[in-house]
Design goal:
Blueprint lengths: L1 H11 L4 H19 L6 E5 L2 E5 L1 H5 L3 H11 L10 E6 L8 E2 L5 H4 L3 E7 L1
Helix pairs in contact: 1-2
Amino acid sequence: MSHLVDVLANLASSENNVAAGLGETLQAFVVAASLYPSAEPILIEFGHRTMALGRKRMATMAGRNAFVYVKGKFGLLNASTPLFLQAVITGKADGAFVEIDLDAWEEIVPYIVKLRIIT
């Protein structure tokens, strides 16, 4: 990775404006990719069960659809009590669970470490 950073730095400092612009663009992509949180699966807990679901798959769904999908995986589609999702978020120092805003699901998914379904 260090070699790539050096090559991009040289390209970005080129006297050729097109090459320099391309180098700067590629540097921005490298920085953006390094800021993106883990691509690891999301662990989901309910009771004594823990399941891993793919982050990419979860990110393609709207929040309410993702919650229905998760409830289906745990056999909770016909649950008679209200259910809620809580998550541990990347970078949250204490690692505590917080409630999820399903309307902001697509923005939050990359930062979710663990989910749990609560009643």
